[in-house]
Write a structure and sequence with these properties.
The chain is α+β, with helices and mostly antiparallel strands. It contains 3 helices and 4 strands, in the order βαβαβαβ. It has helices at residues 18-27, 44-50, 67-81; strands at 2-14, 34-39, 57-66, 90-98. Strands 2-3-1-4 form a 4-stranded antiparallel beta sheet, with helices on one face. α1 packs across α3. 22% of the residues are buried. The mean pLDDT is 84.
Length: 112
């Protein structure tokens, strides 16, 4: 099935914050996601120069959402999680060309 109706949102945050991000996304209409454990890599010298501490343990939350709610989800995550603040993360979306097996908002059609 080819569709241009969906996008995948990735939110990469410090470990322990992905569930909070998912709660915010659900309030905007997202139905669910997948959390992956990850480890960040960065330039340690740059971190020392800027006086920041790097948390290498990360979580990646992936959510397939309808394009119509993408901006609301991304904006809510940014505003409520303070991605530059406590979650120390990044959120972005990418287009999805094919979707199969994804639950939809459409009501089930019953045979008459």
């Amino acid at each position: 099935m080819v569709t241009n109706d969906h996008e995948v949102i990735f939110a990469i945050v410090d470990a322990g914050f992905a569930e909070d991000v998912m709660d915010i996304a659900r309030e905007q209409g997202a139905r669910g996601g997948t959390i992956l454990n990850a480890r960040g890599v960065a330039n340690q010298e740059a971190a020392a120069f800027f006086g920041i501490t790097l948390h290498t343990e990360k979580e990646i939350l992936m959510m397939v959402v309808e394009k119509s709610i993408r901006d609301g989800v991304l904006n809510a995550i940014y505003q409520r999680m303070g991605m530059a603040g406590k979650a120390k993360g990044i959120a972005f979306s990418l287009p999805v060309s094919d979707v199969a097996g994804l639950a939809t908002h459409e009501p089930e059609k019953h045979p008459e």
